[in-house]
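ok new one. same drill as before - structure tokens go in, u give me an amino acid for every spot. 572 of them this time. try not to just spam alanines like last time pls lmao
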């Protein structure tokens, strides 16, 4: 391809809206343009990247025995009502009406549609197993569309769905998908980690996420790893055991109310009362499906909203507004405590039950209680882990300790069980002629998110360093003076040789200064750069350089194809 024939509108200015380096490079490199919040146009270079990644995904899915189909994006609301998700998915679902005022949904995922497809059509165990997938646009009205292609409202996903006769067969299918995922990301030059995750709105029994570890702000997810065994989980799901639990030998002391003027935050209270935050019980008031609940956690911990939500079985959970907190605790915000708290469920983290002579808010303005003890002074309605795992604490599986890293979720796999087949009555007849629901799995990969994640992982201060298998082109040829007949001829000849060897190339045939061409080349990040200039031409050579290193190599004009192939072998 010639630069002047395609459309690569590079920008010198850094677009102010872009927070992440990968988002800035996509805009500056002329890969994408924004149409609306979370909605982007993919320009020619991005289209090539997407196609290359999608083809890797397609190839590995096919190898794993999955079959490609295409399901509609436009769904009748009734199908979502069959599973019950129409009521529970919440505002993330994009909805519309047609001219007959019929309710429709723009698909954000396709469990219902694929289950509807097979319901009544696949009647016998002999037709199973089945693994159907598609690569297609998805719509989700994300609360915060941001970071370019990372969290869009319209994006491309590969979604696959497996149907099996029983748990054993399902586990085989699931493992095949896990293996295919590792193979896909490896081919795309990305080293991913599989972590346990919450099943969220998808439901089902268990789930895993494939994470690309990054040390930039793009790592939206916090991940917890064990330093000893292979335990790995998203913070939403990660659990722990306390590495050094406090000794409970203190005597139970009488309850005492104290003045804590202007002290309502944890820091203010602990410094005013000169106590460790581990002695404090934080009382947080939340609204779970609009009903208030109190969550008790130790002063030094963070509430894990997902764990609380899962325990309550709620669809939506939000921090209670001040007016509700004041009504429930009969005091201003900042002084809530479990003692005397009436008429609302009190969910306590197990660590709270182990604090002897704790400090909590007194449900009175500027007052706290000392020597609060469970059972004598308050009784939680449930004791469940509702806090985040923390680095340094003990691994739930072994004697190791937890560490944490940041990651970007590029794919995930869900063990759905019979959630959709039961609710939608999708059954088959087993070998004994008995009716059974399908055992299902669902498997997603972000086709537009993953390439941006790759940039977040592989870049420098000049631009992108594409992994070769998802790069828009493998080679960029830069004739320093394309207007010179000799430069042009050599460039065209090398171009033809590479292309006929199956190596896709871009020639920068613009009549631009060398500096401009080099800057743009660094920005768009094509792995191999071939520079044609007077100095090396004089000795029958050109200069070859890998985008990921500073080393330049002189290559004889007759040996370019072999040299490029050799370099491509050595790089990621
Ligand atoms: P997240 O936790 O990031 O919201 P999710 O659990 O909602 O992701 P899935 O519904 O399983 O994700 O979607 C499968 C894959 O699609 C994800 O692993 C991710 O790579 C991609 N994806 C999900 N939401 C978006 C989005 N809003 N924009 C771009 N890609 C997305
Ligand atoms: Mg999501």
């Amino acid at each position: 391809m010639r630069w002047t024939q395609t459309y690569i509108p590079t920008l010198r200015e850094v677009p102010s809206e872009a927070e992440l380096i990968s988002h800035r490079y996509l805009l500056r490199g002329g890969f994408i343009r924004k149409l609306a919040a979370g909605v982007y146009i993919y320009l020619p270079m991005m289209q090539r990247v997407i196609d290359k990644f999608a083809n890797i995904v397609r190839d590995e899915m096919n190898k794993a025995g999955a079959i490609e189909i295409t399901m509609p994006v436009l769904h009748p609301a009734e199908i979502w009502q069959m599973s019950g998700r129409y009521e529970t998915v919440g505002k993330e679902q994009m909805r519309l009406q047609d001219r007959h005022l019929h309710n429709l949904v723009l698909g954000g995922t396709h469990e219902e549609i694929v289950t509807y497809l097979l319901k009544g059509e696949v009647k016998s165990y002999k037709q199973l197993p089945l693994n159907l997938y598609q690569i297609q646009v998805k719509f989700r009205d994300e609360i915060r569309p941001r970071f370019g292609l990372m969290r869009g409202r319209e994006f491309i996903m590969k979604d696959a769905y497996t149907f099996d006769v029983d748990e054993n067969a399902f586990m085989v299918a699931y493992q095949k998908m896990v293996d295919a995922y590792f193979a896909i990301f490896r081919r795309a030059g990305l080293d991913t980690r599989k972590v346990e995750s919450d099943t969220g709105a998808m439901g089902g029994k268990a789930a895993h996420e494939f994470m690309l570890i990054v040390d930039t702000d793009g790592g939206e997810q916090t991940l917890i790893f064990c330093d000893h065994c292979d335990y790995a989980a998203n913070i939403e799901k990660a659990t722990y055991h306390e590495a050094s639990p406090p000794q409970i030998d203190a005597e139970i002391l009488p309850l005492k109310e104290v003045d804590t003027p202007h002290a309502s935050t944890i820091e203010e209270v602990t410094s005013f009362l000169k106590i460790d935050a581990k002695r404090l019980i934080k009382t947080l008031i939340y609204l779970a499906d609009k009903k208030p609940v109190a969550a008790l956690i130790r002063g030094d911990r963070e509430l894990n909203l997902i764990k609380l939500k899962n325990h309550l079985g709620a669809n939506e959970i939000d921090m209670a507004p001040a007016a509700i907190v004041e009504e429930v605790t009969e005091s201003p915000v900042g002084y809530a405590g479990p003692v005397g708290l009436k008429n609302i469920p009190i969910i306590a983290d197990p660590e709270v039950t182990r604090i002897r002579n704790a400090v909590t808010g007194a449900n009175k303005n500027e007052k706290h209680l000392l020597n609060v003890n469970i059972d004598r002074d308050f009784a939680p309605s449930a004791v469940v882990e509702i806090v985040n795992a923390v680095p340094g604490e003990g691994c739930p599986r072994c004697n190791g300790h937890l560490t944490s890293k940041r990651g970007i979720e590029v794919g995930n796999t869900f063990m759905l069980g019979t959630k959709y087949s039961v609710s939608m009555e999708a059954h088959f007849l087993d070998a004994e002629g008995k009716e059974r629901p399908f055992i299902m799995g669902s498997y997603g990969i972000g086709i537009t998110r993953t390439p941006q994640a790759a940039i977040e992982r592989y870049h420098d201060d000049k631009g992108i360093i594409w992994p070769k298998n998802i790069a828009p082109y493998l080679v960029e040829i830069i004739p320093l003076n394309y207007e010179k007949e000799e430069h042009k001829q050599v460039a065209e000849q090398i171009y033809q040789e590479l292309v006929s060897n199956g190596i896709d190339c871009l020639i920068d045939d613009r009549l631009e200064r060398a500096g401009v061409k080099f800057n743009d080349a660094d920005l768009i990040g094509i792995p191999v750069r071939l520079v044609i200039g007077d100095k090396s031409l004089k000795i029958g050579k050109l200069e070859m350089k890998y985008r990921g290193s500073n080393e330049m190599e002189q290559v004889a004009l007759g040996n370019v194809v072999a040299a490029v192939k050799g370099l491509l072998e050595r790089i990621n």
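The chain has three domains: 11-192+417-455, 256-383, 473-570. and btw The longest strand covers residues 402-417.
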